[in-house]
């Protein structure tokens, strides 16, 4: 296990991302930051504290997954919190790690069930490649080489005991959360 | 990656036949899952694709409006297709056996069967006859697990027990306990979650055998009222009362009816529940049923979330049992 970013570096990455988003803040209409549970929402909260969007929320994508029949025991269903009108709102969707793109697809579908956003942009902390759907992030802090096929884990307080990004060179397990 | 709290737990029940079969961890997991589904019903588009392409058969061999509608809507909100089947208009009246009927329906490609029947054990018989998942929506005097679950969910909501730990709560169930499947499911569910359950009813309708389930038994209502955090008033089920076990309606109402007067003897924030349909003026006075302590409509609302969770979990269970 190698540490790619410790607490200080991770905080700097979040700061850089926030600055980048701030440069092209949505010019028209209200905007919202929405995190994908259960790490993206923590990241979204941190960005929201810095960027003060009009709204903030989180989505749980369990019910929108396309692999429910394949992933073993039924996952924990958490609540989705979108308590603002989605119609006409610009949404910045936030997740920790982007891999296949399936989580993002599910999150987009979930958001669209709430209304018609004006646009949706995607921010991720780490892009580890391996896309199975045509999904690209608009903002990304760390890009890893897909060929390395490592397992990447973003750990964020308070979900985890510490703030860091770690990488496992062992490819045996492919249980990484995307 | 799963949340830490769920690391060691996996739902393993292919069927939900009664709360007697579940342990506290199962019940808590199910109710926590239901919380995730509660929000779906508050959206403008009340639908998630979790059971898209699955078929839920609603097999109601006994009349029901609320439970049937609740299951129907719950399945719809999960994007399942629903087959509605009622016993009175079916081949059961032509002499076909229950297991033959359900095997035929399963042959049409059904993933979850919801079964309501007036015979205790009918849901278990169905579960033995088919390969799909079976949800008991009430079988005779045996169990009505989804009612027991939605009652527990409502109690947790009203008393702020977010972790579904009912230690220290005192819950009374009042009425015809002997014939009540709602009472049985409540007793199993509530005691497993840590609550103290008090049963109250006429001696003819409340056999002392219920003491074995760990409940206190009383035949008068007034003496226990000040102790209660929750009071669940059962419906007087005239359709099941064929004997002389039941006192006169007036006597029952005077002894066991929940009136405004009795409310004054209870804790200010006592939660009043009723599985419905209510007989106004008999087991519960209108002013109480519609009053601020009443959680009756909240129970109905929560029924949807709980049933969505049940369908979602049983159809996706890792089939380690059976």
Total number of helical segments of chain B?
Answer: 10
| Rg calculated over all Cα atoms of chain A | 16 Å
The share of residues in helices of chain A is 10-25%
Average pLDDT, all residues of chain B: 91
So what's the CATH class of the domain at 27-148 in chain A? Alpha Beta
Would you mind describing this structure in some detail?
The complex is a heterodimer of chains A (178) and B (322). In chain A, 24% of the residues lie in helices and 27% in strands. Chain A is α/β, with parallel strands linked by helices and 178 residues long. Chain A has a domain at 27-148: Rossmann fold (3-Layer(aba) Sandwich). In chain A, the strands form 2 sheets. Chain A has a 5-stranded parallel beta sheet. In chain A, helix 1 (7-23) crosses helix 2. The model of chain A has no long low-confidence stretch (mean pLDDT 87). Chain B is of the alpha/beta class and 322 residues long. Chain B has helices at 24-38, 66-77, 98-106, 122-129, 145-159, 181-192, 249-256, 260-264, 286-289, 296-315; strands at residues 55-60, 81-86, 112-117, 133-139, 170-174, 196-200, 216-218, 230-233, 271-273. In chain B, the strands form 2 sheets. Chain B has a 5-stranded parallel beta sheet, with helices on one face. Chain B starts with 23 loop residues before the first helix and ends in a 7-residue tail after the last helix. The A-B interface holds A 38, 60, 62-64, 68-69, 72-81, 109-110, 113-115, 153, 159, 175-177 and B 1-3, 5-6, 10-12, 29, 32-33, 35-40, 43-45, 47-50, 78, 309, 312-313, 316-318.
Outline of the structure:
The complex is a heterodimer of chains A (178) and B (322). By secondary structure, chain A is of the alpha/beta class.
What descriptors fit this protein?
heterodimer; A: 178 residues; alpha/beta; Rossmann fold; five-stranded parallel sheet; three-stranded antiparallel sheet; 27% strand; B: 322 residues; 2 domains; four-stranded parallel sheet; 9 strands; disordered N terminus
